[in-house]
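Title: Comparing notes on inverse folding

I've been comparing how different people in this forum approach sequence design from structure. To keep things fair, I'm posting one structure and asking everyone to reply with a full sequence. Here's the target:
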């Protein structure tokens, strides 16, 4: 299932939203390749991208959370660590097993869940926290 960017996924922080949009683009390329029968190379590209992406994006997002004293920082950070661990496991699996259909399905499920659940719930909470703080500061 392809995912289209919509305002309901926006955190309200331009840099974070741009990174999320890029992640969605990569996921959609993987999804398209899978259904066009070219998933072998694309799953490898996606996992290589994710390895770099999570290091950069999660550091940016966690830095923002620390700057604003986000109350759910530790839980959010733990979810990032868990996602990073899963990406590492998938990379090890692909090196050992090759790009199997089971691996494609597992990566697809991880990405869909992450994009929908984590961004629309966990990350949007950061945006709401910032907006509430700005609203209170304006009073």
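Reply #1:
Here's my take.
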């Amino acid at each position: 299932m392809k995912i289209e960017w919509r305002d309901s996924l926006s955190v309200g922080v331009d840099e974070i939203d741009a990174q999320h949009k890029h992640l969605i683009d990569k996921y959609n390329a993987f999804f398209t390749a899978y259904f066009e029968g070219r998933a072998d190379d694309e799953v490898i590209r996606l996992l290589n991208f994710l390895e770099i992406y999570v290091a950069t994006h999660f550091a940016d997002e966690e830095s923002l959370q620390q700057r604003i004293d986000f109350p759910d920082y530790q839980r959010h950070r733990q979810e990032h660590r868990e996602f990073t661990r899963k990406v590492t496991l998938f990379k090890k699996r692909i090196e050992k097993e090759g790009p199997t259909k089971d691996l494609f399905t597992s990566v697809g499920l991880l990405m869909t869940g992450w994009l929908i659940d984590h961004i629309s719930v966990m990350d949007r909470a950061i945006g709401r926290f910032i907006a509430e703080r700005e609203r209170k500061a304006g009073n």
